[in-house]
Amino acid sequence: MYGYIYILFEHKSYNDPRVLLQLLKYILRIWEEKYNTKTNKLPIIIPLVIYNGENKWNIETKLINLIEGIEELPEIMKQYIPTYQYEIYDFSPEEKLGIVGLANLKAILQTTRVARVKTGKKFDEELRRAFEFLVGIKDKKTFNELFESCMLYLMYTRDDINIEKVEEVAKKVMDERGELIMTIAEKLKNEGMEKGKIEGEKELIIEILNQRFGEDFDKRLENKIRKANEETINQIKKNILSITLEELKDLVK
């Protein structure tokens, strides 16, 4: 006897009250695809929500609690209600959840947390922690790519910081890699100067979506984003970390 456990990940950057319904749709799609016609059985699916909004996650995690008047219903009625729950990993600044795992993963998760912290001393502290995780990456190529991606992400998601500020904090933590940091910073600054604001934003969107979706994010989508108007670009920006491929295709069709 053997089976599979499916882990369903969903990323949220804001408190979404409909997340239970959204996850349920994903679960049903997986079950429809993975239904075992020989045994007439379904695989177990564990839904995980990763959240990095400004405030703590405060959305219900159990489907049955969305049913109106559930407290007054007799137990015999509750057996007819489908139910499941999801796990929430809250990386918002208020929650202060400890980040564990490989240096790469810790750096990425900490960077998403930094993006939600207000500027000032707290911002500098959280940014420094992200760079401390990056220091743990020994492979030079991996470090270069991840450091550049983290800087791009912060510049893209924050209007109140610039590359000089990020560079300043990074050099304090990674002094021995100062020359490399300056090279990457100079590259990003030059790219920003060469492109107009909207064109630069489009390229940053493409960069982030390429990393999110990999091969599923094809050249046709890239070209449609480059041709999209400012209103569409702003919609994509607002939901850059939670937008699905289907939603993206609908926006730029």
TrEMBL record:
Q: Give this protein's Gene Ontology molecular function annotations.
A: double-stranded DNA endonuclease activity
Give the signal sequence positions.
Answer: none
- Indicate the segments forming the Transposase (putative) YhgA-like domain, all copies: 3-131
Pfam family of this protein, just one?
Transposase_31
Biological processes, Gene Ontology terms: DNA recombination
User: What domain of life?
Assistant: Bacteria
User: PANTHER family recorded for this chain?
Assistant: INACTIVE RECOMBINATION-PROMOTING NUCLEASE-LIKE PROTEIN RPNE-RELATED, PTHR34611
Protein name, entry field: Transposase (putative) YhgA-like domain-containing protein
